[in-house]
Amino acid sequence: MTRRRRRLTLIAVAGVVLATAVGLVLFALSDRIVFFNSPSEVVARSIPVGSRIRLGGLVVDGSVAKAADGQVRFAVTDGAATIEVSYRGILPDLFREGQGVVTEGLVSGDRTFAADTVLAKHDETYMPAEVVDALKKQGYWEGTEAAEGTR
Amino acid sequence: MIAELGHFALILALMVALVQSSVPLAGARRAVPRLQAVGSPAAITQFLLVGLAFSTLTFAYVVSDFSVLNVFENSHSAQPLLFKFTSVWGNHEGSMLLWVLILALFGAMVAAFGTNLPSRLKALVLVVQGWISSAFLLFILATSNPFTRLDPAPIEGRDLNPILQDIGLAVHPPLLYLGYVGCSISFSFAVAALIDGRIDAAWARWARPWTLAAWMFLTLGIAMGSYWAYYELGWGGFWFWDPVENASLMPWLAVTALLHSAVVMERRDALKIWTVFLAILAFSLSLLGTFLVRSGVLTSVHTFASDPTRGVFILVILCIFIGGALALFALRAGTLAPGGVFAPISREGALVLNNIFLTAAVATVVVGTLYPLVLEALTGDRISVGAPFYNLTFVPLVVPLLLTVPFGPMLAWKRGDLSAAAERLMLGFGASIAVMVAVLAFRGSGQVLAVAGIWLGLWMVAGALAELAFRIKLGTAPLGESWRRAAGLPRSAFGTTLAHAGVGVMVLGIVSASIWSAEDIRSMQPGDTAEIAGYEMTLEGFHDQAGSNFDETVARLAVRRGGRLIASMEPSRRRYRARDSSTTEAAIETRGFSQLYVSLGDINAEGGTTVRIFWRPLVTLMWLGALVMAVGALLSLSDRRLRVGAPKPSRRRHLAAAE
User: Fold this and answer.
1) What is the C-alpha to C-alpha distance for residues B223 and B229, in angstroms, rounded to an integer?
2) Residue B657: what pLDDT?
3) In angstroms, how far apart are the furthest CA atoms of chain A?
4) I need a surface site. Which of B7, B339, B385, B484 has the fewest CB within 10 A?
5) Which residues of chain A neighbour B305 with C-beta distances below 8 Å?
6) Chain B from 129 to 188: CB within 8 A of any A CB
7) What's the rounded mean pLDDT across residues B290-299?
């Protein structure tokens, strides 16, 4: 086998692997990613039932109800729209009424959402950036920039 | 006074780093040995100065000097002593100082132990290290000074983020940083060689131990981080494809590729340009990781309070170093002579295949990590890329790589014989199938995916052992001769076997814990019993107790199997007084290699609680596999052929080893 043929073999193998990788990435990016939406975006875009999204906003005061079987219900709002969320599991340590939350799951009906993940904040002074943006869009955010992640 | 001393030491360190960046460079260019020799003492002095700065900050933490802003924000006088130490790097400023300390440590080690390096190469390596040090020291002094004072000094501190108050903080960041920053050495070697315009097999021999050490620490650091997240966050998961986790996985994959291509370069003088490129890539990815984690563009437990000027500063550092190195690479790569030729089916060919798959895998992780940032900047849409994406992209690229791993070491250099290699692997193949069948019989059932995954892990272990058995002629020669051959094998041979087998062990753990796990979430009152995977867990009651800086409610669960009491588990919820925030402390019961895992929700008004129970079969194999890989690396590091400062082995020994 000549040097040239050897090199061509290498390039061919690398090309095949690279093409596979590109193909997989393109397919996965069109199919396996999850969009973040605020409650009013869910309503305005009329996202179909069964879509997997991330939903973020503020937990409405007094909306959290825990059932005996571990089922939790709460409402998430961005000021303009409110979505009822149901979740089965343990809420993160820093989950509180009146505070920001990001959940991931399926749109289960008109203004209802079945979350399978409630994302924890790691620090009590921190507000998820997605939530801050969503609230700002609705003019519901009154804090200063400094409150956004610092203290 | 002490804090000012630290601040001053840091400024001096920057001055010394600037000297280290320039004087030896001038010496190397004009061939003035005396100027060239300035690098070593400068590197050592710089390390001592940064060490002094770090010690003063540590001292401020230990004595709870709340007049230092950094201490006030991240410590509390009631914290246990260990956490006062670890709080030093449990925040942005301190962790950057640790980063620079380790960078200076590596520079000093090159200066002290790199005695066998040609003086010109050594000088240039230290120059490049000096550039990196200067950039990051400047970053700390300009944007992240840990020594800022508070006046008047508060009486009490704000306490460390409770999630970080764990032994994991003592282990995970230093190990990870040793790995991240260790990549800087191979980067410096690569840039030095490019400046010098000369690169050969000897270069790979000098650079490889550093790369191997970085890889070992990175492996341990990532595994430790994964275990920490597993037991601390209370979600029972071990890898979330979080961008910050990816930030450490990307350099790990690149360094893994680099280790393998450096072998080809060292032994066959081939793949030189590619190896240099990988060395640049590996450190670029660690810088990218530092940027992602430290700039605040991502949000996670790793991003402490952020400040946009810091992000921009790191981005500038990132662009200068990556851009500069790549420009130099483009300028000089053409002048590097191509090396030895090899057939596609050969040891080199196998290692090239390894590199192709690994770099493709790196690319998918880079895309998955950066795409959300780019998309948001362009369209404002926020997306999250998680496990479904990587299962479809990363996994299909890694599986064929792992499948072919056992073949690589069985092939000869230059021109290999695939069918002979396959023949030698037959026994290992049979053994892995047999064990898999036995496992399935024991499990009773199995999905196709689980079966294939388990077999893949077994196949890698069997393949690694088969290679060792072949080299010592186990079974084909008298036992005495096999023993003699084993004793004569270089330690790096055992290192390879262990590292490859370790990957297999890790695959077993990941597959088993992902596919055969059982999970239950339920509300329990005292007296209730939950059953999972044949274990009965009875909630016996709660009791309260006080820790040094927290109060906790502890639940006691009795674990029975077949009616017999086998363990008592005590998960708890802690309330940290200073920050008034709570954490969940999971309880873990290890049974063989498997684990029972319990975490608690809030205690409700009726005196019950939500309990989350996991059964994770063979889960510990995942981290043990990483440990085996690291031990393999350590064994290789102790090999005299790789030892820094060791003379070149005699040709005869070399041949015996290569056999």
Assistant:
1) 10
2) 42
3) 77
4) B484
5) 125, 149-151
6) 161, 163
7) 73
Round to whole Å and give the CA distance between A25 and B311.
Answer: 28
SS in 3 state form for B327-380? HHHHHHHHHCCCCCCCCCCCHHHHHHHHHHHHHHHHHHHHHHHHHHHHHHHHHC
- ipTM of the shown complex: 0.81
Strand order in the sheet with B594-603: B518-524, B609-616, B594-603, B587-591
Chain A (107-136) residues lying within 8 Å, Cβ to Cβ, of chain B: 120, 122-126, 128-130, 133
Residues B455, B457, B461, B466, Cα dihedral to 10°: 40
How far does chain A reach from its first CA to its final CA, in angstroms?
A: 67
Query: Which residue among B300, B352, B360 sits closest to A10, beta carbon to beta carbon?
Result: B352
Which residues of chain B neighbour A35 with C-beta distances below 8 Å? 381-383
Give the β-pairing of A52-59 and A33-37. parallel
In this complex, the residue of B341, B388, B583 whose CB is nearest that of residue A3 is: B341
Tokens of B515: 């596919």
For range B254-261, the mean pLDDT: 96
Compute how many other C-beta atoms are within 10 angstroms of the C-beta atom of residue A46: 9
Residue for token digits 């100082």?
B97
B271: exposed, middle or buried (Cβ count in 10 Å: 0-12, 13-18, 19+): buried
User: How distant is the Cα of B579 from the closest Cα of chain A, in angstroms?
Assistant: 8
- Buried b vs exposed e over B598-625: b needs ≥16 C-beta within 10 Å? bbbbbeeeeebbbbbbbbbbbbbbbbbb
Chain B residues touching residue A144 (CB < 8 angstroms): none
End-to-end CA separation in angstroms for chain B = 63
CA atoms within 13 A on the CB side of B125: 29
B64 and B50 Cβ atoms separated by less than 8 Å:
no
- Torsion, Cα B165 B166 B170 B173, to 10 degrees, reads -80
Angle (deg, nearest 10), helices A3-31 and B387-404: 150
Give the nearest partner residue to B383 out of A1, A24, A36, using CB atoms.
A36
The kind and range of the H/E element at B138 are helix B119-143
- Global pTM? 0.91
3-state secondary structure of B456: helix
Alpha helix segments (H runs only) across chain A = 3-31, 39-44, 129-137
Contact A149/B at CB under 8 A = yes
B191, B350, B588 from B268: Cα distances, Å: 21, 14, 49
Query: CA-CA distances (angstroms) from residue B346 to A17, B12, B258, B414?
Result: 19, 52, 18, 5
CB contact under 8 A, A36 and B384: yes
Q: Which single residue is written with the structure tokens 């002629």?
A: B473
Q: Do the Cβ atoms of B288 and B318 come closer than 8 Å? A: yes
Angle between helices B243-268 and B347-379 (to 10 degrees): 150
Using the Cβ of B384 and the Cβ atoms of chain A, whether some distance falls under 8 Å is answered with yes
d(CA B120, CA B115): 12
Q: Which of A29, A33, A70 sits opposite B522 (nearest CB)?
A: A70
Please tell me the predicted confidence (pLDDT) of residue B436: 87
pLDDT, one tens digit per residue, over B3-34 is 999 999 999 999 999 999 999 999 998 989 99
User: Which of A4, A13, A90 is the best substitution to test chain B (most B C-beta atoms within 10 A)?
Assistant: A90
- The pLDDT score that the predictor gives to residue B651 is 42
Chain mean position to CA A111: 16
Closest CA to B353 of B398, B412, B417: B398
**pLDDT > 90? residue B256:** yes
To probe the interface with A, which of B144, B233, B384 has the most A CB atoms within 10 Å?
A: B384
* A105's tokens: 């799951």
